[in-house]
Amino acid sequence: MYALKSILCFSNLLPFVVIALLGFIYVRSKKQPLWAEAYRRLSKNRLAKLTLAVLAIYALIAFTESISWQNSRITPQQSIMDRVFTLAHVQRERTYSQPFAHYTTGEPHPHKLKGWHILGTDGAGFDVLLETLRGCHTAMLIGGLTTAIVTPLALLFGISAGYYGKGVDDVIQYIFTVVASVPSILLQISLLLVLGQGVVNICLALGLTGWVGLCRLVRGETLKHRDREYVRAAKALGVSNMRIMTRHILPNLLPIVIISSTLAFSGYVLSETILSYLGIGVPAGVGSWGNMIDAARLELSRSPIIWWNLTSASAALFILVLALNIFGDALRDAIDPRLRSN
Amino acid sequence: MIGYIIRRVLYAIPILIGVCFITFFLFYMTISPQDLARRNLSAKNPTQQQIKAWEIQHGYNKPKWQQFVDTTKGLFLFDFGRSDSVGGGKIITRLKQSWLPSFEIASLSFIASLIINLTAALIIAYFRGTYLDTFATSLCVVMMSITYLLYIIAGQFVLGRLMRISPIAGYLPGWESLRFVLLPVIVAVISGFASDTRLYRTFILDEINQDYVRTARAKGVSESLVLFRHVLKNAAVPVITNTVSAIPALFLGSILLENFFNIPGLGNYLVDAINNQDFAVVRANVFIGAIITIVGYMMTDIGYALVDPRVRLE
User: Fold this and answer.
1) What is the pLDDT of residues B92-145, one digit of tens each?
2) What is this structure's pTM?
3) Can you name the residues that pair with A103 across neighbouring β-strands?
4) Which domains does chain B have, with CATH numbers?
5) A188: nearest CA partner in chain B
6) Is there a contact between A297 and B153 if contact means CB atoms under 8 Å apart?
């Protein structure tokens, strides 16, 4: 009974909201000719379908980690993934052990392992596979939340700068020139030092530095559209500025915004590892590939070399970023063949 | 022309003031000086007097606007004050000691990457449409997807430990330093290779379809000469813009490389400051980073104006 009560909380509801939103957008956009055409081109691209499947798997893993509940008042919060691993008899060990090993490594007298570990265990005895899959959740969360911060910010400032021009444009241009003239890593470090560690704070830091590029792009595109005939016609008909911006100009900007957001997503995931490496990113205890790589780099000088920790974290990161990059390129080709890179 | 340069330099001043305002807002407005003093005083329970003394020593007792004017004036005069940590020396002396190693790594890797990536892009563009082109562009996408950290770890392990090309970590001043800088520079060049080469290739291919290229071919100029003489000159403009806009990224390289290879440069100073929560040092680093970036943008703009008479600041 308590389990049922603890499952009904905001953080468990959020994944469903996101899925519903994505589904709604897909169904709505499919009715429009431009997007229907893009989906058709995308569905003919075999590589794009493969990468989409890979991304779906990552999303599924992240989903199983994000739904969690307590069995009773005294037991800790356990996610679906934790429960699956508990069912498979994966327990915490004493220290390092190789993949599929029966005994620990690095100890003078190796101990027998309690369970079996496909990817071995790390220095604190945690299962590497579980940690890597937890990292999926963090990475998707950071990528998604940062995109959710960057896109509205960039659209708001970019469209209003491009549409109103003059004073508004000067002020917004001044703001983004100032932000752009500080190397983004330095600004992120400053923000995180002030805000403190944490997943949401990382997203804030990445978002507050990352909106500049997209804003510049949106402003440039809006400038192009502002003097086109359809906008002038709308003005002549007495449509309000607000409505012109949201109903007439915004839909024309969406393709370019979606493409650059997809490609930026992988950048956010990569930034997380670097910030975590610097010790100001994801706090310890939350699975993160950056923390795993940071912990693993010193172990390369050990003998025997502890390689499985580093390998699984960087492989998971590599596959996600590669899939995002390929999918972003395919999306660009599908939405606007004129933008095709070759 | 001189008028243009003066205007361009003056244009940088309000932006620098904006940068000062951002850093001031972050480090002075969002955190109370009491907390800052508690973080930095090493005693476990500092007395009120100790906190007051620390605040006065670091100038946190004055009114906010006075603090802003003081710090901004200080930054513009390159007087960064003392480090926030207990017994912290003057920031400027540490900066003077540590700029050279960072400059060595950044400049060497900057120049080496530009030459190598541009050559690679030209070669790929020469073989455009063949299997080599497809292979190279796919390789670039794969290489782009690897995190910087892995390049450094793998580079240090393979080049330093297994192949023993140069010392794994450390630094010595003078000419000897080149031996220690070699490994970080190689790693920096490799890690930046993919994204730049891919971008330069598209710049070059944009030029290849222009009319003047067709004219040159019609006149009987050989394909390699077309590429290396005619196309390269015109593709140089977007390439230069891109390399200059990559200057802020050099800071990331400097931070990670110097930390991994234990080189006493600016990046390592910054990492120390992060670990000690030393806000004064971070603030100084942000300001210097902004100055370098702004000067970089300024020089490209002036360079454009020199090359192309159509470009002028309105």
Assistant:
1) 888 888 888 888 888 899 999 999 999 999 999 888 888 999 999 999 999 999
2) 0.89
3) A112
4) 93-258 (1.10.3720.10)
5) B286
6) yes
